[in-house]
Design a protein that fits this description.
Nucleotidyltransferase, domain 5; alpha+beta
């Protein structure tokens, strides 16, 4: 099994547990250049809020989208948007990525912004 298949297997197990409790999900995806975050409805069919380093307003203020500072900025922006819609409690779906570096920075910034998970 290669690295990508292992990550996808971990992600599938996490998503199955989140779906079983029917929780609103904060899903992330990271690439070498950018990090993306979305808050999805409990049924998984609707994107309620999204933020990424590839957004037009974020590109202007971030010189590099693939570092910890950029991930923290995305987490703060996502928490602001979610609070505007009244979303406070979410389940964190790290998509099989290890909880360190950019993933951890985004999660901590979202928690500081008022999201509970």
């Amino acid at each position: 099994m290669n690295t990508k298949q292992t990550r996808i297997r971990r992600a599938r197990k996490t998503r199955a547990k989140i779906a079983a409790v029917k929780a609103i999900r904060l899903a992330i995806h990271r690439t070498n250049s950018h990090i993306y975050a979305q808050i999805l409805s409990a049924d998984g069919g609707t994107v309620m809020v999204s933020a990424s380093t590839n957004d037009k307003d974020m590109r202007g203020e971030l010189p590099n989208g693939g570092n910890v500072a950029a991930a923290a900025a995305v987490g703060r922006r996502l928490a602001e948007k979610a609070k505007g819609l009244g979303i406070e409690k979410v389940a964190f779906d790290r998509a099989g990525f290890k909880f360190h570096g950019r993933v951890k920075a985004l999660a901590e910034a979202a928690r500081e912004g008022g999201l509970v998970f």
